[in-house]
Design goal:
Oligomer: single chain
Radius of gyration: 30 Å
Low-confidence stretches: none
Distance between the termini: 16 Å
Helix content: 40-55%
Structural class: alpha+beta
Largest sheet: 5 strands, antiparallel
């Protein structure tokens, strides 16, 4: 290897080593075999367990789970096997450097943001600590602590897609297309909401490019680049075409596919094809809460914050006679957050020095990209306000495609967490390009420092006088606390704001000083890089450690204790019946998946439940309509017993796996269908929507006393029954109707089934003895795979072609120099 090539690749080798060391040092408990005990990860394990066991026991895979909400597709959980996705596995291991879990997420963050900064021409060494600065944005680590792994990985993988877009418009077509195709293939289907937000940012950058090309009268190259980028994204998405199509048809049937079909007067005022507006904006960032971008604990950190034994609150509790151990335990989970969100795990903090550099960038960076980044930043902030800025929120919710599919609008701040540091590092690039006078730069340093440090100093000195530090959520616990203790929490909130404001003030002074010294040529470039890098990383590392630290890591055994089989579960599992359900009334039944780890639950946890099942919950199950609960074959109730310990009650009225009905009620609207479940005798009558009436045209009301349905065998994706009847009839099964994928067979002959009782499956069964089988095998799976494989072939082919092109070009360069 010649010296010139070595010098070129050295920074990249150093970057990889630094990134790995960074990740390992930050979460070194993983070296001891520990894992993060994250709530969402535990929830996912509860959802996934049935399919995991099924695959381990049979070697087969299922796209349906029967363990939650009486049955639903598991496309967004896992369990099914898509062959085309397996073809991308080797590439996935490469871009993740073979790491998994928390280490993988942090390293992928760092590599993704490094690629982004390098594509924009930021110096290699600056890009190393720049990548760490972006990655350490507090929200990116808080979501790891919460177990939002797909969200975190999507953020990391979308950064190179932005880079690919930029490179394509700068006529570096091959590299840009490869980055776009590869990372789109992995990012977009992981967490569509995060990908959607980043494409909004990309749209802003493309508008900047349009302005540049119009100004330079190069409109044709613009459309060439746009077409190439769109094609590259299309190929990337196409590589996941099967998964995308399965999810597309699934979403149509879920809460995210539109409002309930049950007509209500309030729905008429705001009818969309997506989520309910109030539900989607429940987590809206407060307008003044935006100050957390600069001052981390401006709004009190989190809803369960560890203020420590050095806090004023702890000292106040001890002073008032609270035992030290009790005071210490209380101070580990203090409701210091006083914003308007229902609860939060922590603030969105981009770093005091980074925010200073952002303001500095607005003052010295020129050109359309500055304005595109500023616009994207402002838009993400305004949209994050949600119900606090309803005119803009409602505009996007009503008129921007797919925007109404997503909840927790505050998470759009991920855009600002990219644009703010990106513009800040572009400012450093401007300095290093030596196109600006020293006097011009110094003046802008003073202005940016004066604005940001000045704001921090005002809150450090007077923050305690500007707010009352009372939260609308305080009513949940104030009645349980003595007045002096609540006053102590208020004082702690005030102290946290003022101390963090002063903290940010100091970091801005230090960071600004290092920048000033470099511009004044008082320190060398290497000292500038190391000095500024240490300050930025120190600032953000210490804040992130407040929310993701060694205490969040536990041994696998400790995590396993969460799923340790309980006595009530042991009791229920002794039942030899192969298929029945339970209703756990000792938990938040429709917001937990722990029950689903061992048992089939009529409740569960999922952000995209089937819409009709949600209706069943809202209108019937939550109101304890026993007929509806019985028709779901709910054989056991889990209820609070002595000392609030879960105990089991057998339900003698559970209706079993299927039953013949004597009569049918055909109705014209979903409301009539749902209401009928309150009035009909579900044991002998079924209600049908009129659109299914063709299935029962020949039906005649009758009672067959000898008719019976016997359940034979259960698998998540395969159910077998045996029926006996003296005449033709309609059987209703206690299984959830889903229009895409379930196939019915009578004596191995395919037949059509239909929907009854608002959510269940029904089937016409002829007289006599018959074997019935339901199999979940979506046609979309088989139809979509050829397209996915074609796109994967294009990705691998383009990568190989790009490598060959690079080798040939290198040889030509050597020949030319010789």
């Amino acid at each position: 290897m010649n010296k010139e090539l070595f010098k070129k690749i050295l920074p990249y080798g150093v970057a990889i080593v630094v990134f790995i060391l960074f990740a390992v040092i930050y979460c070194y408990p993983v070296l001891e075999g520990k894992v993060i005990q994250a709530g969402d990860t535990l929830s996912w394990k509860g959802m996934y367990q049935e399919n995991k066991e099924y695959t381990e026991e049979t070697g087969e895979y299922s796209f349906w789970t029967g363990s939650m909400f009486s049955g639903m597709p598991n496309y967004q959980i896992g369990g099914g096997k898509i062959s085309s996705q397996q073809a991308l596995t080797p590439l996935g291991k490469i871009i993740r450097f073979g790491f998994t879990g928390t280490l993988m997420l942090i390293i992928t963050y760092l590599i993704g943001f490094f690629i982004l900064l390098r594509s924009f021409g930021v110096n290699k060494w600056i890009s190393i600590f720049g990548a760490m600065a972006i990655a350490l944005s507090s929200y990116f680590f808080i979501i790891i602590e919460a177990g939002h792994n797909t969200k975190a990985e999507t953020i990391a993988l979308m950064a190179p897609v932005i880079a690919g877009c930029f490179l394509i418009f700068k006529k570096r077509y091959i590299g840009g297309a490869i980055l776009t195709m590869v990372f789109s293939a992995f990012a977009i289907t992981l967490h569509p909401q995060m990908a959607y937000y980043f494409f909004m940012l990309i749209g802003c950058l493309i508008i900047a490019e349009l302005y540049i090309h119009i100004k330079e009268k190069k409109i044709v190259p613009f459309f060439i680049a746009l077409a190439l980028f769109a094609a590259s994204v299309g190929v990337g998405i196409g590589a996941r075409y099967t998964k995308t199509q399965l999810n597309r048809e699934y979403v149509k049937e879920t809460m995210r596919g539109g409002h309930s079909e049950l007509a209500k007067e309030e729905d008429a005022l705001h009818k969309t094809s997506g989520l309910d507006l109030d539900y989607a904006t429940q987590w809206s960032y407060g307008i003044d809460e935006t100050m957390t971008l600069l001052i981390p604990n401006f709004k009190g950190a989190s809803s369960n914050y560890d203020v420590g034994t050095d806090s004023k609150l702890y000292k106040e509790m001890v002073k008032n006679g609270v035992p030290r151990k009790s005071a210490e335990d209380f101070c580990k989970n203090v409701p210091t957050y006083w914003g308007t969100q229902p609860f939060t795990s922590g603030p969105v903090y981009v770093g005091a020095i980074i925010f200073f550099l952002f303001i500095f960038g607005l003052l010295i960076v020129k050109g359309p990209y500055k304005w595109a980044l500023l616009f994207a930043t402002i838009a993400s902030v305004l949209l994050s306000w949600g119900h606090n800025f309803m005119p803009l929120t409602k505009l996007f919710f009503d008129y921007f495609p797919m925007y109404d599919k997503f909840r927790a609008v505050s998470s759009i701040l991920v855009v600002a967490e990219i644009t703010i540091p990106l513009l800040g590092f572009l400012a450093i690039k401007e300095i290093m390009d030596h196109k600006l006078s020293k006097e011009f730069i110094i003046k802008r340093i003073y202005i940016a420092g004066g604005i940001t440090a000045g704001i921090c100093l005002i809150f450090a000195l007077f923050g305690g006088l500007l707010y009352n530090f009372i939260s609308p959520n305080d009513a949940q616990f104030t009645s349980q606390l003595p007045e002096w203790l609540y006053d102590g929490i208020i004082a702690e909130r005030s102290s946290m704001l003022r101390s963090d404001a002063f903290r940010s003030f100091v970091f801005i002074l230090l960071g600004g000083s290092v920048l000033w010294l470099f511009v004044q040529q008082k320190i060398k470039f290497s000292y500038f890089v190391v000095g500024l890098g240490i300050l930025i990383v120190s600032d953000m590392w210490l804040v992130d450690k407040r929310f993701l630290n060694n205490d969040n890591f536990v041994s696998p055994k400790a995590e396993g204790n969460y799923f340790k089989k309980q006595p009530h579960e042991e009791y229920i599992l002794q039942d030899s019946d192969p298929h029945f359900r339970v209703f756990n009334l000792t938990t938040n039944s429709f917001n937990e998946s722990r029950t689903s780890y061992y048992l089939k639950h009529i409740g569960g946890y999922h952000a995209a439940k089937l819409r009709r099942y949600q209706d069943l919950i809202s209108e019937h199950i939550s109101k304890m309509n026993m007929d509806v609960i019985n028709m779901l074959n709910t054989k056991y109730f889990i209820v609070p017993g002595q000392n609030n310990q879960p105990t089991v009650q057998r339900n003698p009225d559970a209706m079993g796996n299927g039953w013949f009905v004597d009569s049918l009620l055909v109705v014209n609207t979903p409301n009539e269908e749902s209401d009928a479940l309150n009035t009909i005798n579900i044991r002998n009558t079924a209600v049908l929507d009129a659109k299914f009436s063709s299935f029962v045209e020949g039906f005649r009301p009758h009672h067959d006393s000898l008719a019976k349905v016997e359940f034979i065998s259960y698998a998540p994706n395969k159910l077998e029954y045996k029926t006996v009847s003296s005449s033709d009839g309609v059987v209703v099964f206690s299984e959830i109707y889903y229009p895409y994928g379930w196939k019915a067979f009578i004596d191995e002959q395919p037949v059509e089934h239909f929907r009854a009782n608002y959510t269940l499956r029904a089937l016409n069964v002829p007289a006599g003895e018959h074997n019935i089988r339901f199999v979940f095998d979506p046609d979309t799976l088989h139809k979509s795979e050829p397209i996915a494989f074609i796109c994967i072939f294009i990705i691998y082919g383009t990568m190989i072609g790009g490598i060959i092109f690079w080798i040939i070009r290198r040889k030509k360069e050597k020949t030319f120099k010789a």
